[in-house]
Every structure is written in structure tokens, then in C-alpha cells.
Amino acid sequence: MNPRTIDKIAKVVLWAVGCFLIALLVCFIGYMLYKGLPVLSFHFLFGMPSDIEAGGGVGPQLFNTFYILFLSMGVSGIIAIGAAIYLSEYAKNTWLTRFIRLSTESLATVPSIVLGLFGMVVFVDYLGMGFSILGGALALSLLNLPLLVRITEESLRAVPQTYREASLALGATKWQTIRKVVLPGAFGGIITGIMLAGGRAIGESAILIFTAGTTVSRHMWDLDVFAAGETLAVHLWYVMGIGLVPDRIEIANGIGALLILIVLVINLLLLALQKKFKLV
To answer: What's the CATH number for 40-277?
Structure first.
């Protein structure tokens, strides 16, 4: 067969696959929004949930979702940046660094429910935190850590070596070079990793069921890190799994649409930051 013909066939097949994936995504998102958007209201978004009567809201769960997300990203972000700086700027290619990278990549393959069981044993039971926001955030940081370490390390390595050499030639110390030159140069990649990890963590439920629990505080916007920390994803599982409310289908549709909107906003925010600051 003519190579040009083969090239055209391959191009058509690849275009067809791409269009199919786009159509599948549009159908999925469109169906969820079609079912869930009519449920969304001020009372639903900021009202208290109900265990028996219809018409409850998801206000505490919405707050806990972002509260746990920010806490977990703060913990995992600090550790990931420190680990990435060590691996890219200080560590030599020894068995120890290779073992650290292997451990990080292996942690990324651990099922989330296993991380949840680990969090329950360590944070909930051993450290006595109970089912709390803090326990959920610490366990969720284990899920975010491998992705953040990998992306941050690659972002630091992508900074041209000439930047480092120029800074050192001007009399700066290694730490000053890292802080003033390397980190700002890798800022785009770091932000991208944080946004990607945040979008993934928004919909996590298995880890939080075992660590943050399936209940919420009786007080709205409770900042107590030892309060119960049910999130939107966990509430969705609870309502459809063992919930007794008569309108659980409507609640589930509303939560599904709300989670999709949150993830879409995070991705749009990432695109806006990339455009404004020319992030890589």
C-alpha cells in the first residue's frame, strides 16, 4: 500500500479516536449537568444536611471539601518541594536517591483505599485524632505527595543550567540561587502540579471515609481540625450507599454536578494562570 495512503488512514483513525473521546466527555459532563444543575440552589449549597427528611443541603460538606484540600495541599506541598529540591539540586545519582525515587513512584501506585486504611491505623487510632478533618488531610497528603514530588522535580530540572551558573558566577550561594533563580523559574510547573493534584483530591472518597468520617459538625463553617470532616464525595457515597433520605437521587445528582463544576473551575483557573504568567 502507498505510504501516503497509510498516512491518511492513520490520520483519519487518530482524528476519529480523538473526536470519540471528546464526544464521550461532552456526553458525560452534559448528562451530569443536565441532571444536577436544577438541584443546585442557595439552600442546597449552603444549607445543613438532613439524615431523614428531604430538602437537606451540603453546606458543611462543601466547606470541608475545600478545608481538607487546602490543609492537605499545604502539608504535601511543603514536603514535595523540599524533596524535589534535594533530589534535583543536592542529591547525587546514588543508590539512596534511586531508592527514594522508586519509593515515591511506588507510593503513587498504592490504591487509595489502602492509604485510607493506613491513615485510620496511624492518624485515627494510634495518634488519637479520631475521624477528623486533620486526620483526613494528613492521609490525603499521602495521595498528593508522589505526583507533586515528581512534577516539582521535573520542573526544577527544566530550569536551564546556565541560570544557575550565572547566579553562582555573580557571587550568590547555592541556596540563594535555588531560592531566587531556580524556584521562580520552576514556578509554572509547580503551580501546574498543585492544581492537578488538587483536582484529583477533590473527588477522593475512599481515603476520607476511613479518616475523616461520614458525619459533619453541627456548627456551620467549623474550623476545628478535630471536627468530623465528611466531604462532598464522601456524602455522595453515603447518600447512595446507606442514606435514608427520600430525595437521595436528587442530592446525588446535585453533588455530582457540583463536583464537576469545581473541577472545571480549577482547570479554567489553571489555564488563566498559564496565560497570564506564561507558566510552563
So the answer is: 1.10.3720.10
